[in-house]
């Protein structure tokens, strides 16, 4: 049987330090030993090299053997019960007697391997009841704290009392995983780290990932010699994931980092909040120190206390803030924007800035800026509103460091470093913006964060200087808290709703005035039309009468004079016809005739009787097929067909007998492809002179005449009148023709 170790000997350098495979070091710390058992058979497939120190059995004697073969059936059964009862959690310890020695073990599964980590069971420096009493006392103290910072300080004190470490820190991360010592308990002779900041590079991403999966990390002696793990060499690239292992060996970079800080031993407890790494409880000792598994669990309980209380403490801290800004929001929501001037009163009220603790606010509405407090200049507000509308797609945006988004606008970002923006209207720059000025702060770092990794003649190493390094932060405002952001959003929503109501009201007033003006204008036009169609007909009749009398006298009148009088009389006749047609056209919209079921055959019979003289004069032939019944107004329908028949007779060819066919389409159709309404279609076809199809639309416009010859009298109103009648019936009219081939008028009546 061939045996090999799985120690990871890859060299860490500047290009791979953030990808260092710290979960597969292939070695452990020496304060316990490790066995890796195959899941199906419990054969020992992995074994640390220090088993002889604890069991007087070398790893070469263990590898490939069954667990029961080496340690007996009783130990095997205890292990199986532990596994089968789902007790493979760090809070459940498994006591086992192996080779006659008592151990406390933790067990976890790594892929298809059960990893057993064993540490000697020793007499506790602290009795179990003492640890319990300290924990119970801590729970009592917890009831007396109200803020998160007070709670974290209590945890730091309690953890130090339970574990005996020289320094215990509660370490909190920001959004970028830069850390701050949020609370601390340490020996009186040690320099405090409270308030110091550490760059995110001190804890690389892969280390943060391990803190998420393994909540407790122990180093008993920084100067330990890593113990290699051996395995049976029966597969290429064989390895063991130690992400959940308590004994896992530490990255050389991290060991050097702690060396540079003068630390001799450490314990780290992860603080997980909302499935993210919120912070750490970091315990440092300045000489080697080990903790029993029981004490570790008691210390880990402190971390559970913090994470279980974060919501409660933050809610308590935010409650008073929320209460104050809600009162301000209620007062703001009481404003009713019944006129634009109210925006001035709203902006100048202190409530609008108080609801999110801003130093200033501006409202941009229809190009006018309403503002109060500490804001940007008007020109900058217009530019900022335009940029924010595009950047946020007319939604919302907030930051306490505007310069990160507008690096070329340092003066603007210094005056208004923090903003909350809400658009008030889609497709416009109307918006509300709250402002906060620059708050120059001094951040104390534990060493220069830019020098977190150092490369020298000896190679790559973590920084070795933790001397106080101060950074002045500019162009940054006080951060916006979530209640402030929520309240600003609620205010913007209410303001947007009120502005929309204001806009609708303004539009309603404008349209009402326009409607009144239009009604007045229409009334005046109707008066003018009445005058033109009634009062003007009287002088026209006199002109016609006088012309007729002059022409009927026997006195000798010159030919030129007779011609002039004839033209005058013809002009008067045409004007009278035009006035009568205009009166008919304008009366269409005032018709009060009731819609009823109309038999078109009866309508056509009446029309033929009324037009008998005209039809006989031209010897016209009117052919009418069986027509359907439709919904319509009889009077208007008689006028419709009278106009169409008269038009066909008027524009018939001089040498051809007029023939007019009125036929239905027997199947209802759509007027257009995108029109789902069905129509009954009536065709009025003649054999007249026709017209060019390019004029098929314009012939229905009022006063449009295609034939200007004096032989064809008309006002150009007839077909416009027909179109109006069809519109009154919710129908359509169209024409199809060609010169010399006659015309087909199509009438579409809704089914």
Automatic annotation (TrEMBL):
Biological process annotations from GO: detection of visible light; regulation of DNA-templated transcription
Residue intervals of the Histidine kinase domain: 531-751
Top-level taxon in the UniProt lineage: Bacteria
Catalytic activity, reaction form: ATP + protein L-histidine = ADP + protein N-phospho-L-histidine
Transmembrane segment boundaries: none
Domain Phytochrome chromophore attachment site: 147-304
Family: In the N-terminal section; belongs to the phytochrome family.
PANTHER family for the chain: PAC DOMAIN-CONTAINING PROTEIN, PHYTOCHROME-LIKE PROTEIN CPH1
Name of the protein this chain belongs to: histidine kinase
């Amino acid at each position: 049987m061939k045996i090999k170790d799985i120690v990871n000997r890859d060299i860490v350098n500047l290009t791979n330090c953030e990808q260092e495979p710290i979960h597969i070091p292939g070695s452990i710390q020496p304060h316990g030993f490790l066995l890796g058992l195959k899941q199906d058979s419990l054969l020992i497939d992995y074994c640390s090299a220090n088993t002889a120190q604890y069991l007087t059995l070398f790893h070469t004697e263990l590898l490939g053997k069954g667990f029961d073969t080496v340690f007996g059936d009783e130990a095997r059964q205890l292990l199986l019960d532990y596994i089968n009862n789902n007790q493979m959690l760090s809070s459940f310890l498994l006591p086992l007697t192996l080779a006659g020695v008592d151990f406390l073990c933790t067990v976890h599964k790594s892929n298809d391997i059960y990893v057993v980590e064993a540490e000697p069971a020793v007499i506790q420096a602290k009795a179990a009841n003492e640890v319990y009493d300290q924990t119970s006392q801590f729970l009592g103290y917890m009831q007396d704290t109200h803020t998160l910072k007070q709670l974290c300080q209590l945890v730091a004190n309690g953890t130090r009392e339970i574990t005996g470490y020289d320094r215990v820190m509660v370490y909190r991360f920001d959004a970028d995983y830069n850390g701050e010592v949020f609370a601390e308990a340490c020996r009186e002779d040690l320099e405090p780290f409270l308030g110091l900041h550490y760059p995110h590079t001190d804890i690389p991403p892969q280390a943060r990932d391990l803190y998420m999966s393994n909540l407790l990390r122990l180093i008993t002696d920084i100067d330990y010699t890593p113990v290699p793990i051996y395995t049976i060499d029966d597969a290429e690239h064989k390895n063991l994931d130690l992400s959940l292992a308590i004994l896992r060996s530490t990255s050389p970079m991290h060991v050097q980092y702690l060396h540079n800080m003068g630390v001799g031993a450490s314990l780290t407890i992860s603080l997980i909040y909302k499935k993210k790494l919120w912070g750490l409880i970091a315990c440092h000792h300045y000489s080697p120190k080990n903790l029993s598994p029981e004490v570790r669990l008691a210390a880990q309980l402190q971390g559970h206390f913090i994470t279980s209380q974060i919501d409660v403490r933050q809610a308590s801290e935010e409650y008073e803030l929320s209460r104050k800004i809600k009162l301000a929001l209620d007062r703001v929501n009481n404003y009713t924007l019944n006129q634009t001037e109210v925006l001035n009163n709203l902006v100048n009220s202190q409530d609008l800035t108080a609801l999110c603790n801003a130093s200033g606010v501006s409202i941009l509405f229809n190009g006018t800026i309403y503002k109060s407090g500490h804001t940007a200049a008007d020109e900058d507000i217009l530019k900022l509103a335009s940029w924010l509308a595009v950047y946020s797609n007319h939604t919302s945006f907030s930051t306490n460091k505007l310069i990160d988004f507008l690096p070329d606008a340092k003066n603007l970002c210094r005056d208004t470093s923090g903003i909350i923006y809400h658009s008030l209207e889609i497709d416009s720059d109307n918006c509300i913006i709250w402002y906060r000025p620059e708050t120059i702060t001094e951040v104390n770092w534990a060493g220069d964060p830019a020098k977190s990794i150092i490369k020298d003649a000896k190679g790559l190493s973590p920084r070795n200087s933790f001397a106080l390094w101060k950074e002045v932060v500019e162009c940054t405002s006080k951060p916006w808290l979530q209640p402030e952001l929520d309240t600003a959003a609620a205010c913007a929503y209410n303001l947007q709703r009120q502005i929309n109501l204001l806009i609708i009201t303004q539009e309603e007033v404008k349209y009402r005035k326009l409607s009144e003006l239009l009604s007045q204008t229409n009334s005046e036009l109707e008066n003018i039309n009445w005058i033109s169609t009634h009062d003007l007909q009287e002088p026209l009749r006199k002109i016609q009468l006088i012309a007729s009398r002059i022409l009927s006298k026997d006195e000798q009148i010159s030919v030129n004079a007779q011609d002039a009088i004839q033209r005058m009389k013809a002009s008067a006749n045409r004007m009278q016809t035009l006035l009568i047609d205009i009166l008919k056209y304008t009366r269409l919209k005032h018709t009060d005739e009731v819609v009823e079921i109309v038999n078109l055959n009866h309508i056509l019979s009446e029309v033929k009787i009324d037009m008998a003289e005209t039809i006989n004069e031209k010897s016209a032939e009117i052919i009418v097929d069986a027509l359907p019944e439709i919904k319509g107004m009889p009077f208007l329908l008689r006028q419709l067909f009278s106009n169409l028949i008269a038009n066909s007779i008027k524009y018939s060819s001089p040498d051809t007998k007029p023939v007019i066919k009125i036929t239905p389409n027997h199947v209802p159709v759509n007027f257009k492809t995108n029109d789902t309404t069905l129509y009954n279609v009536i065709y009025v076809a003649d054999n007249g002179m026709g017209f060019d199809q390019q004029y098929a639309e314009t012939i229905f416009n009022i006063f449009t005449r295609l034939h200007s010859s004096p032989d064809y009298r008309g006002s150009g109103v007839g077909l416009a009148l027909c179109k109006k009648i069809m519109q009154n019936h919710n129908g359509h009219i169209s024409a199809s023709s060609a010169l010399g081939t006659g015309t087909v008028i199509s009438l579409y009546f809704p089914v």
